[in-house]
Write a structure and sequence with these properties.
With 160 residues, this protein is mainly beta. The chain contains 2 helices and 9 strands; from the N terminus they run βββαβββββαβ. Helices cover 14% and strands 37% of the residues.
């Protein structure tokens, strides 16, 4: 199974963000407190229906927002499916959706996203560390059609 797109609204530090993933390696590169772990937490939440960082869903909603919405388009069992979670502040219960159908519990989400072709690496590197990291990869020019890929990550794509 593979994640194609991720959309976040009002989730943690993201007011409104979209990411597209490619098969293979996708890198999340950025400084401290830029939202790399929050992005992974969103993917994990859509996969399990819970956060790996907190038990309180109110903490997942951006400060000042009334709700958070997480969406992912995934390739699963040779078809495209959409996962959606809407979290509300206060006592209103969350809503979980799979392929446009509201789910009664998070159990329906398990197994939709598992380890697959898309691997995400979280890398927080200082400039000096980048040089060490660079030496460990083949220096083949990027095969991506965009200019967003670092030359030291062949076929990779940097998000954010």
């Amino acid at each position: 199974m593979q994640i194609d797109r991720l959309s976040l609204r009002g989730f943690r530090n993201y007011e409104d963000a979209q990411a597209q993933f490619v098969p293979g390696v996708n890198l999340l590169v950025g400084g401290n407190a830029n939202g790399k772990t929050n992005l992974l937490e969103a993917v994990s939440y859509l996969s399990t229906g819970r956060s790996f960082r907190t038990r309180r869903e109110a903490e997942l909603i951006r400060f000042g927002a009334d709700f958070a919405e997480l969406r992912a388009q995934v390739q699963s069992q040779e078809r495209t499916r959409e996962l959606r979670a809407v979290l509300f502040s206060g006592r209103r219960p969350r809503q979980l959706w799979l392929a446009g159908v509201r789910q009664r519990s998070r159990a329906a989400l398990s197994g939709v996203l598992t380890r697959g072709q898309t691997r995400t690496a979280v890398i927080s590197l200082k400039l000096a560390e980048r040089e060490i990291f660079h030496d460990e990869f083949d220096e083949t020019p990027c095969s991506c059609s965009t200019t967003c890929c670092p030359s030291w990550m062949p076929g990779g794509r940097t998000l954010f």
